[in-house]
Amino acid sequence: MATTRSASTVWSGDLATGTGQTTFETSGIGSFPVTWKARAESAEGKTSPEELIAAAHAACYSMALSNILKEAGFTAERLETRAEVDFDTSNGAKISAIRLSLSASIPGISPEQFEQSTQAAKEGCPVSVALAAVPSITLDAVLV
Length: 144
Known about the structure:
Elements: E1 7-12, E2 19-24, E3 30-34, H1 36-40, H2 49-71, E4 78-88, E5 94-105, H3 111-124, H4 126-130, E6 137-143
Parallel strand pairs: 5-6
Antiparallel strand pairs: 1-2, 2-3, 4-5
Helix pairs in contact: 2-3
């Protein structure tokens, strides 16, 4: 069974000076301003598609890893995942890299099981799969 989630953006003006408002429709958590400057330069209190992708990737990776751990008989005390998405405008606009970093507390897991589980989550989380065209997706995972 498929579940559908939705968001929308209303944009006014041209790319360089225009403004938009992105609304999270399914959750109703709010509307957030977007601009080209916030995307390509400094955020200044606004979001960007890349920040939204980073949030989605961090959440998806954490969920995928928690499921892989459960199937292997482990429960994480804490998974702290950060995603950094690089937006490169030097040769056409594109996402050039994503860096995932994880700090994890997982009682009883061996370093080998940890490495295998974290890599499986990186390769298998639905957002990673959807972003397969990104030239570089890396993972730095630390067991604490």
